[in-house]
Design goal:
Shape: elongated
Low-confidence stretches: 1-20, 594-650
Strand order of the largest sheet: 6-7-8-3-9-10
Distance between the termini: 52 Å
Strand content: 5-15%
Membrane topology: Multi-pass membrane protein
Mean pLDDT: 74
Largest sheet: 6 strands, mixed
Helix content: 55-70%
Structural class: alpha/beta
GO molecular function: ATP binding
Number of helices: 22
Organism: Streptomyces gobitricini
Pfam families: ABC_membrane, ABC_tran
Main location: membrane
Number of strands: 10
């Protein structure tokens, strides 16, 4: 079984304006560090020039100092060769330090740019893209470029300088042997370009497969994935799926490693054989009565020639690495080029004091141009401090309507206003301060309770955190834990029950203190007793705030100032609870209810639904409130349907 090997997100097609070549764009990443790179260039050039002097010193030793018995000159020349090695080594260390620092800064800039870009992406992007795919782009793709980014600039300058300096020195020593030595270089360049293109193609496939494997790991080894896999008896199947993904990666890694290996080895063999060919050519020329080449000149030339081929091969390898890295750069640039739909205006409006009046004025919304409208012609006004409840069947647009207020989505028609200002004209800080969201899916970080609460307001004191927890009816439970507020909540908060996590989320929102509160079915997944505890926390949170409740249970909507019924994205009924009951329409069907109670089964589903069964949390009571009648009264197998009166109304 293969689970979603590819992400459902695909890069957008290129627009009419073609982006600059990737290599040029990659080089722009180094622009902020051109001063440091200039220093590296000077060090590299100096190191290359100094290293070229060594063969000339060697020639003088062999042709002059030793034959003539000049001990003093021999000593100076030998010391010169030692000094050359020392200077070259020191320059090499300095250039490595600077170039590595520059490369790591570029990596940091890339990671930060991609992360920042993703933070600005609309919610719809993350509903279409697997988390593992996103993680792979930031960690694996950028990490795969590390060697190229940190060493390429130095390698290019160093090897290019060495090649130029060595060729000049070779021409000065013996121009005829130089021409022989350079005849095969064009062939080597052609071979390396072929190898580079092949490795680039394989690298793109390899990174895609690594992203698929990372996504599989992220999904199947999360707490939810482990629970699902074990309770469904699919652990072996998931292991087989991962093994298949890993097997595909093995093949791609082998292909990447072996791509062009024989051709590059041929280059190495030819270069290794060149000294023998030069000695042979010099010997034939001498026997044929050609120009005499001294032993010192010949040895120095061979030394230079070997010094030429090393940077030449390195340049060819660097070219191959650059082409391979372009596949990784392309994946990163795809994310950096993603269009950001939700942005701040150039001159945003900042609200210093937010009252909390929310209005939907002729609001239309659709998720994409090809689909139909999710919301159409919505006109709702919620005064500051007022409460609105939204009910309707699944897929009627309830959550979408609430997400328009904090700009998780933008309207496609009409406008949503906060205190009379279109939310699209507000700065993000005003919007974040003004609107808080508590949803059914509570997300907690793998950190302490205090850190999770302080995420809402980093400067909050311990006393303020405790006050928020008390208001959310969760302080006593936290205080009873061995580590108190320093207790780790675990991955996604799985050390806490559903009701406890929900109250922690409420405490976090209380600490944020937003004037407008969005409650997106915040109690629909909780049992009766837990819901009562959470509802008390919600009542404390809602006091004095503008509240928009996406309702699933009657207890959360009876006392709302206005109740709106949505069907297929349109408002079909509105009014207070009493008015809608008298109207005997769709809402009245919920009040009457036609589902009868059924016995509650026991088993794993009960524990999964109710959390951990902690004392005082009501987790052991897994009865649930009725679904809306227009949802078809559908319940999961064995789910209890219990109709009860509102807690507020008694």
């Amino acid at each position: 079984m293969r689970i979603h090997a590819e992400s459902t997100w695909t890069p957008p097609p290129p627009g009419p304006e073609q982006p600059p070549p990737q290599i040029r764009r990659a080089l722009r990443l180094f622009r902020p560090y051109r001063g440091r790179l200039a220093v590296v260039g000077v060090l590299v050039a100096a190191s290359s020039l100094v290293s070229v002097a060594s063969p000339f010193l060697l020639r003088e030793i062999l042709d002059t100092a030793i034959p003539q018995g000049r001990t003093g000159l021999l000593t100076l020349l030998a010391l010169g060769m030692i000094l050359t090695a020392v200077v070259t080594g020191v320059f090499g260390v300095l250039q490595t330090l600077i170039s590595t620092t520059v490369g790591q800064r570029v990596m940091h800039d890339l990671r930060t740019a991609v992360y920042g870009r993703l933070q600005r992406m609309p919610l719809a992007f993350f509903t279409r893209t697997r988390t593992g795919e996103v993680q792979s782009r930031i960690a694996s793709d950028i990490g795969g470029m590390q060697a190229t980014v940190t060493s390429t600039a130095t390698s290019l300058v160093s090897n290019l300088t060495a090649v130029v300096a060595t060729v000049v020195a070779m021409l000065a020593l013996e121009w005829r042997l130089t021409i022989v030595s350079l005849l095969l270089l064009p062939v080597f360049v052609w071979i390396s370009r072929r190898v580079g293109r092949e490795r680039k193609r394989i690298a793109a496939q390899r990174q895609g497969q690594m992203a698929a494997m990372a996504a599989t790991v992220t999904e199947s080894l999360s707490v939810s994935g482990i629970l699902l896999g074990r309770t469904m008896g699919r652990a072996d199947s998931l292991t087989s799926s991962f093994a298949a993904e890993s097997e595909r990666l093995v093949g791609l890694e082998v292909r990447s490693s072996m791509a062009g290996r024989w051709r590059m080895s041929t280059i190495g063999i030819v270069m290794a054989a060149m000294p023998a060919m030069l000695y042979w050519a010099a010997g034939l020329a001498l026997q044929a009565g050609g120009p005499t080449i001294s032993i010192g000149t010949l040895v120095a030339f061979v030394s230079l020639q070997q010094g030429l081929f090393r940077p030449a091969v390195s340049l060819l390898s660097t070219g191959v690495d650059i082409q391979t890295s372009m596949a990784l750069f392309q994946r990163i640039f795809e994310y950096l080029d993603l269009p950001v739909d939700i942005t701040e205006p150039q001159t945003p409006v900042r609200l210093e004091k937010i009252r909390g009046e929310v209005r939907f004025e002729g609001v239309d919304f659709r998720y994409d141009t090809k689909g139909g409208e999710t919301l159409s012609g919505i006109d709702i006004a919620v005064p500051a401090g007022g409460s609105l409840a939204v009910v309707g069947p699944t897929g009627s647009g309830k959550s979408t309507l609430s997400y328009l207020v904090p700009r998780l989505y933008d309207v496609t028609g009409g406008r949503v206003t906060l205190d009379g200002v279109d939310v699209r004209e507000l700065d993000f800080d005003s919007l974040a301060r003004g609107v808080g969201v508590v949803s059914q899916e509570t997300y907690l970080f793998h950190a302490s309770v205090a850190d999770n609460l302080r995420f809402a307001r980093p400067e909050a004191t311990d006393e303020e955190i405790e006050a928020a927890a008390r208001a959310a009816q969760i302080h006593d439970h936290i205080a009873s834990l061995p580590d108190g507020y320093a207790t780790l909540v675990g991955e996604r908060g799985y050390r806490f029950s559903g009701g406890e996590k929900q109250r922690l989320a409420i405490a976090r929102t209380i600490l944020r203190d937003p004037p407008v509160l969005i409650l997106d079915e915040a109690t629909s997944a909780l049992d009766t007793r837990t819901e009562q505890a959470v509802q008390q926390a919600i009542d404390a949170l809602s006091a004095g705030r503008t509240t928009i409740t996406i309702a699933h249970r009657l207890s959360t909507i009876r006392d709302a100032d206005e109740i709106v019924v949505l069907v297929e994205g349109r408002v079909v009924e509105r009014g207070t609870h009493e008015e809608l009951v008298k109207r005997d329409g769709r809402y009245a069907a919920l009040v009457r209810g036609d589902a009868e109670p059924e016995p509650e089964p026991s088993g794993p589903a009960q524990a999964a639904e109710g959390g951990r069964g902690r004392p005082g949390d009501g987790s052991a009571d897994t009865t649930t409130a009725p679904p809306l009648p227009w949802d078809g009264g559908a319940t999961a197998p064995g789910e209890t349907i219990v109709r009860r009166a509102s807690r507020r109304s008694g």
